[in-house]
Structure formats: structure tokens, C-alpha cells
Specification:
The structure holds 2 protein chains of 2 kinds. By secondary structure, chain A is α+β, with helices and mostly antiparallel strands. Chain A folds into 4 domains: about 90 residues, Uridine Diphospho-n-acetylenolpyruvylglucosamine Reductase, domain 2 (2-Layer Sandwich); about 120 residues, Uridine Diphospho-n-acetylenolpyruvylglucosamine Reductase, domain 3, CATH 3.30.465; about 110 residues, Alpha-Beta Plaits; about 150 residues, Alpha-Beta Plaits (2-Layer Sandwich). Chain A has 17 helices and 19 strands. In chain A, a hairpin with a 4-residue loop joins β5 and β6. In chain A, α1 runs antiparallel to α3, α8 crosses α10 and α13 packs antiparallel against α14. The radius of gyration of chain A is 23 Å and the shape is globular. Chain A starts with a helix and ends in a 7-residue tail after the last helix. By secondary structure, chain B is α+β, with helices and mostly antiparallel strands. Chain B has 2 domains: about 150 residues, 2-Layer Sandwich (Uridine Diphospho-n-acetylenolpyruvylglucosamine Reductase, domain 3); about 110 residues, Alpha-Beta Plaits (2-Layer Sandwich). In chain B, about 35% of the residues lie in helices and about 25% in strands. The radius of gyration of chain B is 21 Å and the shape is globular. Classes of the chains: A alpha+beta, B alpha+beta. Chains A and B meet through β9, α7, α8, α10 and α15 of A and α1, β1, β4, β5 and α6 of B.
Chain lengths: ~475, ~300
């Protein structure tokens, strides 16, 4: 399917020919995002520079009924920015200006192509920071963060993107522009802002974002504890939470991921550890002191065999080094890996980890576990060798792990999103009625289905007529929802 | 006034109205008084799931027995469903946010009787559209909120309040917001007073109180000032939204108000048009039209219309 020549000419006229990509070799750059297993070459890529240009592009696509997909840095892990064959990719890379820093209001206004870390960089000199910190924060964009409702290691205490966006300019799929929220919170009416954040680019294209920035804490303390087993480390996490302590981050790595990290970046983690726990506390100094002492006591009581603490930036970076390199380090122990993203209620972590171990054995593939233990967000790394024909088995194992998460009352995805990757898995978590209502909401924004089609909600074309195996929804199991 | 006591009953009642083309206003023609149970409280996960007819005070009394709370403290004692539908919050909004910041999942009954759930009961979850947030502020126009899962917080071990009497409210507020103190509540009781709630361990609260006094002066006072704040908020006749940096200008135009400066919201004695933040008429119209399309998708026959 090729686009009408008149549309291409019109877009060239609108944006300037240099901002309209048509060369096949150049289009290939956009064929996938961080989920490289899904690829589609777009017909056309446009790089608008303003809300008005995005609006003009969307109006033209709407008039011609051509599907379009917005794209930031392309670091997403669920295929949310995978192009639609025969469609247009709207790259927001050129819209990378920080428009306003208003620290009197604790707000920063940015365009969607601004990198996450650049927001913090813009306000750090004044002692502020932007809290959501996905691990790709040096390159991933705020627009992508808004689409995915990105979290990060420190969202346990500070919250997700949705807690830090106060206003959005949204180009709707028909080209109308809506302003949602602003610098003030609590606008009248339903929380449309809260719906658009995390909607994975399916409800429109965001062109301007007002963010809340936070005063940097008086004190930050990082503790690293080595345990014999993940069970022991898990027990420590439970005790920390039970003590009423809310760390900014609680991260765990298991033996395999520790070993890989040692091979890759030599963080010098406790020798022979079956699990390493990283706990970071921030806030007023007196509280951090007290909580840190309590966390230490709890870790020792739960049989940590080694404890390290750091309060200055350099030593903290050292403690985090192994964790931050964990995904990349997997290259040292396997040729290929798939990162799963599932969530379980935190108290169910130990049993789910044991289940993952069983699944790993029965599938004959290794699984490394590195995760946000504080909020039950698991990132099992399924290791395989594509050349040995293990890809399909790896996919099955990753799916089985997801089932284990759902069985424990959790979620399909904690931060990577549904995108292309998990659209067909949605019926495992949501009933047909739930999905039908999701569809109503989506059509209210995008009646023609032009905006990032094929993502989030399963379609027969994508998933076949038979929906995935029905599983009891977490809310249903506890009697919160029932099927009538 | 019929009160429903099960999801099925709510679904059947609304479906009948939908088919008959009859109106069935939530809170008036149909109430959730009988739908008021705590379905699950996982203390170890700091989450709970409740039926939406439960009163906030009842829920918080039950949670307190486990040393936890739902960190919402709006005036009055509304049901959880009303707290969401009317987007109610109180002084704790400063640190813990509005209902939309604490909702993890919902079960809704749409006007045609469709029962749908979104979100879940885990604190981190990005699967599917966030209908839980959508219904926050929806005034009962989109669906009946039947069940809600929340994120909870531990009850603080200690809490103390600083009250600052000053002619320079904006300056005191700015100093506090720029500081590294982490108050749980920060209200300007215009004219002339700023109240700061400090929570945490005893030693940390003492240290924060001393630091706050060093910064803006004032004296410790009892928790009754928060009762006053809630009372005045509850009795307010107008609401102004503003960029937090414009606090001084906003206060200059008001005789009396309870102000949550970090949120940019003032509850005023005067009757004022709500939402004073400047916005182009076109963009505001676009939001209006979008909201209307969503309403029609959820309730095509206008069953829930006021």
C-alpha cells in the first residue's frame, strides 16, 4: 500500500522536504523500537517542529485515512512505536526544547522530544530534580515516558510519570488540539490527563508537557546487603515495609544476574551472594538516619552476611553499578535474552520466584532475576541461544512466567507497556467486557482507528479469532469483580 | 431511594433504566449504601480493595487497626465512590495527592449495565486504559463506581503542626516549598496564617519542626487547625486554580480562602468561576467536546445525566 502522492507533496510543503523521509534505507531506521522482534517499514516518516506542524500532519493523515504512529527515542520495550505498514511515523525528535523553567511554581514545560535526564539537568543547579527515572533516562524522551507512564527504580516512593505530569497539549487523532490540565492540579471534570498518560500513543500525539519537579532531598543513603538466598532477601523486604519504612528504591538481584554483573562491570558485590538487596532512603536527614539504622538491623536479623552503606554520590554510584548494568551484563552469560516485565503483589514474591525457578528448570533455560522488589515488579531475563533454535522455548517460558504473575494477582506489565508485544495477552488479565469498554474509550478519542492502531487492545487480525486462554482476573478472584 | 447491595443489582437497575430510557442518577435515584464492605486488605502490600459505598471514616478506622491509612482527608465523610467521583481531597493532598494518585483499580457499572474492571490491585501496573483515573472527577456521569483498590500508607509514628502567623503568607509558603523539609500538609489559611503538618518518627518530626521554625517562625499548635481548614474548605463557595508561583497575586484578590499552594488550588469564600488558569477558548472547547464524546460512549442514553 502506498500513500497518495498528493499527501507526500503536501507534507513536504508543510514541513520542508528535508523533514519528510521517503528513502527506503532511511525508513528502515524507524522499522522497530527497543522490541526488535516486531518490525514494519513505514511508508513515510515526518519530523514536525511544532504543535501546529503536528496538527497539520495529523489533519492530513485523518483526511486521507492514513494510520500514524508517534515516536520518541525508540527505546520502548513493548513495540509501542512499531510502525504500521502503509502508515506514517511522526517522529518528535526535533521537538526537543525545554520551553519554560518555572521553579516558583515547581514546574517545567517541555516538548515531547526532550530526554528525561535533561529535565533534571535543567533544574539540578537550583536543587531540584525530575523524579521518574527509567533506566534509559539518558536517551528516552518525556513524550515516550508520557505514552508509557514510565516508572524507574525510585518510583516506589516518588511515583510514576502520571504523578508528575500536570498538563498536556494533545493533538487528537482528527487534528483538534486539546489542553489538559496546566500548572495547577485538580482540573474540573474527569481526569483525562490521567487517561492519556500511559495510553501508549493511542489517544493522540502529545506536543507539550508540563512537569512537576521536586526539591532534592536533604539526605540520601544507599545500603547494599548480601544474602544467601532470595528468600532471605525477600523476608528482609517484607520486614522493612512492615516497619512502616518507605524507601525510595528497593532493588534485588539474584545469583545469576550478580555473576553476570561481576563479569561485565566488576561491581565487587558480596562474594557468593545468592541475592543482593539495594535499599535507598531519601528525605530529611533525621528520618533517613533513623530508617537506615532500622534497615540495617532488619537485614542482619534476616541473615544478611555482608552490609555496605554509602551516603556520598561516588560510593552510591558504585553500589548501583552492578544493578544499573544488569541487563547489558547478560551478554556475558548468554547470546540472547528476553526481558519480561510482570508484577506481583509484593508479599507473593517468594512463591513466584520459586515458581519461576521451576519453570526455568522444566523449560531447560536459565532465568536471571533482577527486579524492583519494593513494588513487586519483576524483570525476569530469559536466557537463550537463537542459533540453537531456543527462541520459541524462550517465548513460551516468558509467557509461563507472566501466567505465574497473573495467577498471583498481579499484572501483565508494570512499566514496559502492552504495545504490540502483549496486546494478544490482554484477555488473560481482562474480560471481554473490560476490553470492550477500553474500546469505547479509545473510539471516543479516535473513532476511525488511525492513531497507533493494533496496539494495546487485541484485534482478531492481530491475535486470531480465538482470544488467549481466559484467566480469572485478580479482582475477580478476590470477589471484587464477577462475570455476569 | 433504592440502595443497591451487589454488583449484579447495580447492573440490573442501571440496565433497566437504560432500556426504558429512564434517568437513574447516582447518589439520588440509586445509592451504594448497601455496597459498603472491605473486600481485601493486604497489610503487607499496603493495598486494599473496598466497595464504593463505604464511608472514608469507616475504612480508615479499619485500616488504623493495622497501622495504615488511606491518605485522603477531605471535609465531611463521603463514601469512597463520592470521594472519587467528586475528586475530593484535603490537607494531605500536599504530599499524598488526590484520589487519582492513590487509585490502583476500579470496577465500574456502566449505564447499560456493563460491568468492567480496569487497573488491578498492585501498586505498579500499566496494562490497559486507566478507567480508575478517568472516573475521578466524573461526578457520576460516566459510570457507577462499584469497587476500588487503593494504595495505602503507614500511619506516622508522630505528627506535629506548626502554625505561622504572618502578613507575608506567600513568602513563608515559598520558603517552605524551596526548603528540603517534607511536610505532609501545607495550607495557607488566608489571610495571615500558614499551617504545616510534619509526620514521621518522633525524632525526625522534632527536627523538622525546629528547622521549619528556624525558617519561617511560628509556634506549635494542635491538630484542630486541620479541622478548621477542612471546615472552611467544606464551606467554600468557589475554587480557584492557579500556577503555584502566582500565589501572591491570587491571594491579593481574595478576602478569605483555604489554599493548597503546591497544588495551585484555593477554596474561596467568594463565589468565583472555577478554573481561572488562562486557556484559549478553542482548546477548552476541544476538551469539552472530547469529554462529551467519552460520556456518550459510556452512557449513550443519558441515564446518568443530572
Amino acid at each position: 500500500m502506498s500513500l497518495p502522492a498528493s499527501l507526500v507533496a503536501e507534507l513536504r510543503e508543510l514541513l520542508g522536504a528535508e523533514h519528510v523521509v521517503v528513502e527506503p534505507e532511511q525508513l528502515r531506521v524507524y522499522e522497530c523500537d527497543g522490541l526488535t522482534g516486531h518490525r514494519a517499514v513505514p511508508e513515510l516518516v515526518v519530523l514536525p517542529h511544532s504543535t501546529e506542524e503536528v496538527q497539520a500532519v495529523v489533519r492530513a493523515c485523518h483526511r486521507e485515512q492514513v494510520p500514524f504512529v508517534a515516536r520518541g527515542a525508540g527505546t520502548g520495550l513493548s513495540g509501542g512505536a512499531t510502525p504500521v505498514a502503509g502508515g506514517v511515523v511522526v517522529s518528535l525528535a526535533r521537538m526537543n526544547r525545554i520551553l519554560e523553567v518555572d521553579l516558583q511554581s515547581l514546574r517545567v514545560v517541555v516538548e515531547p522530544g526532550v530526554a528525561n535526564l535533561d529535565v533534571t539537568n535543567a533544574v539540578a543547579g537550583e536543587g531540584f530534580f525530575y523524579a521518574p527515572d527509567p533506566s534509559s533516562q539518558q536517551v528516552c524522551t518525556i513524550g515516550g515516558n508520557v505514552a508509557e507512564n514510565s516508572g524507574g527504580a525510585h518510583c516506589l516512593k516518588h511515583g510514576f510519570t502520571v504523578h508528575h505530569v500536570t498538563g498536556l497539549t494533545l493533538v487528537l487523532p482528527d487534528g483538534e488540539v486539546a489542553e489538559l490540565g496546566g500548572k495547577a492540579l485538580d482540573p474540573d471534570g474527569p481526569d483525562l490527563l490521567g487517561v492519556v498518560v500511559g495510553s501508549e500513543g493511542t489517544l493522540g500525539i502529545v506536543t507539550r508537557i508540563t512537569l512537576r519537579v521536586v526539591r532534592a532531598p536533604e539526605a540520601v543513603r544507599t545500603l547494599l546487603a548480601g544474602f544467601e538466598t532470595t528468600d532471605a532477601a525477600g523476608a528482609a523486604v517484607s520486614e522493612i515495609v512492615a516497619a512502616g519504612i518507605l524507601p525510595s528504591a528497593i532493588e534485588m538481584m539474584d545469583r545469576l544476574t550478580i555473576e553476570a554483573a561481576e563479569l561485565a562491570v566488576v561491581p565487587g558485590y558480596p562474594k557468593g551472594a545468592g541475592a543482593v538487596l539495594l535499599v535507598e532512603l531519601d528525605g530529611v536527614a533525621a528520618q533517613v538516619d533513623e530508617d537506615a539504622a532500622e534497615v540495617e538491623r532488619i537485614c542482619l536479623e534476616c541473615e544478611a552476611f555482608e552490609l555496605r552503606t554509602a551516603s556520598d554520590e561516588a560510593t552510591r554510584a558504585l553500589l548501583w553499578k552492578g544493578r544499573k548494568s544488569a541487563f547489558a551484563a547478560m551478554g556475558r552469560v548468554a547470546t540472547d535474552y528476553y526481558v519480561q516485565d510482570g508484577v506481583v503483589p509484593r508479599t507473593r514474591l517468594p512463591e513466584v520466584l520459586r515458581r519461576i525457578e521451576e519453570l526455568s528448570r522444566s523449560h531447560g533455560l536459565r532465568v536471571g532475576n533482577v527486579f524492583h522488589a519494593g513494588d513487586g515488579n519483576l524483570h525476569p531475563l530469559v536466557l537463550y541461544d537463537a542459533e540453537q533454535g531456543e527462541t520459541e522455548r524462550a517465548r513460551e517460558l516468558a509467557e509461563a512466567i507472566l501466567d505465574a504473575c497473573l495467577d498471583a494477582g498481579g499484572s501483565l506489565t508494570g512499566e514496559h507497556g502492552v504495545g504490540m508485544d502483549k496486546a494478544c495477552s490482554m484477555p488473560r488479565m481482562f474480560s471481554e467486557r473490560d476490553l470492550e469498554v477500553f474500546g469505547r474509550l479509545r473510539r471516543a478519542f479516535d473513532p476511525e482507528g488511525l492513531c497507533n492502531p493494533g496496539k494495546v487492545i487485541p484485534t482478531p487480525r492481530l491475535c486470531g479469532e480465538v482470544p488467549g486462554p481466559y484467566r480469572v482476573h485478580a479482582l475477580e478472584r478476590i470477589g471484587v469483580a464477577e462475570r455476569l | 431511594m433504592p440502595s443497591v447491595s451487589s454488583l449484579r443489582e447495580a447492573s440490573e437497575t442501571l440496565a433497566a433504566a437504560h432500556v426504558a430510557g429512564r434517568r437513574c442518577r447516582i447518589g439520588e435515584d440509586l445509592t451504594t449504601d448497601g455496597l459498603d464492605g472491605i473486600l481485601e486488605h493486604e497489610a503487607g502490600d499496603l493495598t486494599c480493595t473496598v466497595e464504593a459505598g463505604i464511608r472514608l471514616s469507616v475504612l480508615n478506622a479499619a485500616l488504623a487497626r493495622h497501622g495504615q491509612r488511606l491518605s485522603l482527608d477531605p471535609p465531611g465523610d463521603a463514601t469512597i465512590g463520592a470521594v472519587l467521583a467528586r475528586n475530593l481531597s484535603g490537607p494531605l493532598r500536599h504530599r499524598f495527592g488526590a484520589p487519582r494518585d492513590l487509585v490502583l483499580g476500579v470496577t465500574l457499572v456502566l449505564a447499560d449495565g456493563t460491568i468492567a474492571s480496569a487497573g488491578g490491585k498492585v501498586v505498579k501496573n500499566v496494562a490497559g486504559y486507566d478507567l480508575g483515573r478517568l472516573v475521578c472527577g466524573s461526578q457520576g456521569r460516566l459510570a457507577l463506581i462499584a469497587r476500588v483498590s487503593f494504595r495505602l500508607h503507614p500511619l506516622p509514628k508522630a505528627a506535629r503542626t506548626l502554625l505561622v502567623e504572618t502578613d507575608e503568607v506567600p513568602a513563608a509558603v515559598a520558603a517552605l516549598l524551596r526548603s528540603q523539609l517534607q511536610p505532609s500538609a501545607l495550607d495557607a489559611l488566608h489571610p495571615g496564617r500558614v499551617a504545616v503538618l510534619l509526620e514521621g518518627s518522633e525524632r525526625a518530626v522534632d527536627a523538622q519542626l525546629a528547622a521549619a521554625r528556624g525558617l519561617v517562625g511560628g509556634d506549635e499548635t494542635g491538630p484542630e487547625v486541620w479541622e478548621e481548614s477542612r471546615m472552611r474548605q467544606g464551606g467554600a463557595r468557589g475554587r480557584v486554580r492557579f500556577a503555584p508561583g502566582d500565589l501572591a497575586d491570587v491571594l491579593a484578590g481574595l478576602s478569605e480562602a483555604v489554599v493548597r499552594p503546591s497544588a495551585g488550588v484555593a477554596y474561596t469564600l467568594e463565589e468565583l468561576p472555577s478554573g481561572s488558569e488562562p486557556q484559549s477558548a478553542d482548546a477548552a472547547d476541544a476538551v469539552q467536546r472530547l469529554s462529551e464524546r467519552i460520556r456518550l460512549a459510556f452512557d449513550p442514553n443519558g441515564v446518568l445525566a443530572p
